[in-house]
Amino acid sequence: MTAKKPIPNAVDILDEITQQAALDAAEHPKVTAADRQWSREYGAKIDARLAELRRNLTPADAPIENAQPIRASTLAMARDALIEAITRITRSMGGAVQFAHRNLKVLSDDDLRRLYDTIDPTARKPE
Amino acid sequence: MTTTMSDTPHQAFLPNEAWIESFTNQCNDALRIATKHFAMRRLRGVGKVGGHVDDYAAQELVQDAIDDTLFGVLAWDPTAKSLRQHLEDAIHSRTRHDYNRAKRYRHARIDAFDRDSEGLGARGELEASLQQDRDDVEPASAIFASEVIEQVRELAADDKLVLRFLDALVAGARSRADILHFTKMSLKTYRNARARLRRLVEQLDNQTVAPLRKA
């Protein structure tokens, strides 16, 4: 406690007594079901505001990168050839290439073409 | 006063990711409920002079402080203090305003204070509030406060720990470190004394204030 602090008057002291009692009440609250319900409902509003604040961090004019057109040579590939090519690239590159799909058979032909074009290391070379 | 999250201007408030993360991590159910109970106890201090006190008033006080923080009306620096400390400081300041206002206008609701009079810059709100009150203590308020303190002392007559705790507050101790330094108490003893002081305050409230409210 420093000597520079002002000498408290009676109002200050009473305020501090209330403050200390309040700090104890906060540390040992008698929580009711109504407290929990209020906090839960209010928490949902807070979450919405926090989501808004996060959205505000994204620039309004953020550039959207369009997907590259699928190569003509890839468009010409049949489904079996696509699966074989994707499997070959995956094996040859080990962990360097990863994608979310474990079962390629459930992907459509177009999805397979998009995946193959994305992971094929020669894909960005001009044809 | 009630603010809702939709009617407050907030376009200019753009906290960074770290601020949002800190708020998200700290503003959980436990913090909101603890702060509500803190607010309720603070408001009951106001209730001694006729303020309106109920669960909703405490919830509203907490919501106002949180909303004002989320909309940048009340500045919070996560690197300087925890969100809980920030909210307790804000509520301390606002209920102290209410206390003085209620003393002057005994039947005014505590939530009817003037937002503009708060100094909405908000940084250092508590210190500014305390200084303003020190400069503006009415004799009647001081006499009333002295009487209440005397009543607390009488209730604590046999409790040396609480009397030492009160001595520290009378000497100007405010923070926990101040009180520990003054009283030479251990942290455990300090918490014990504070809990007993709280029970005395509630006992006094029940003895002297509740009958007045009913009358």
Describe the structure.
The complex is a heterodimer of chains A (127) and B (215). Chain A is 57% helix and 0% strand. Chain A is mainly alpha-helical and 127 residues long. Chain A has a domain at 72-119. In chain A, helix 4 runs parallel beside helix 5. In chain A, 22% of the residues are buried. The mean pLDDT of chain A is 86.
Distance between the termini of chain A: 78 Å
Which sequence of SSEs, written as H and E, runs from N to C of chain B? HHHHHHHHH
Q: Number of DSSP helices of chain B?
A: 9
- Mean pLDDT of chain B, nearest integer? 79
| Uncertain stretches of 5 or more adjacent residues of chain B | 105-123
Q: How many strand units of chain A?
A: 0
Largest sheet of chain B: none
From the spread of the alpha carbons, the general shape of chain B counts as globular
Structural class of chain A: mainly alpha
Alpha carbon gyration radius of chain B: 18 Å
- The percentage of residues in β strands of chain A lies in under 5%
Radius of gyration of chain A, Cα only, in angstroms? 31 Å
Protein structure class of chain B: mainly alpha
Mean pLDDT of chain A: 86
Largest interface: A-B, 45 and 66 residues
The strand count of chain B comes to 0
Helix content bin of chain A: 55-70%
How would a crystallographer describe the biggest sheet of chain A?
A: none
Distance between the termini of chain B: 27 Å
* Estimated helix fraction of chain B: 55-70%
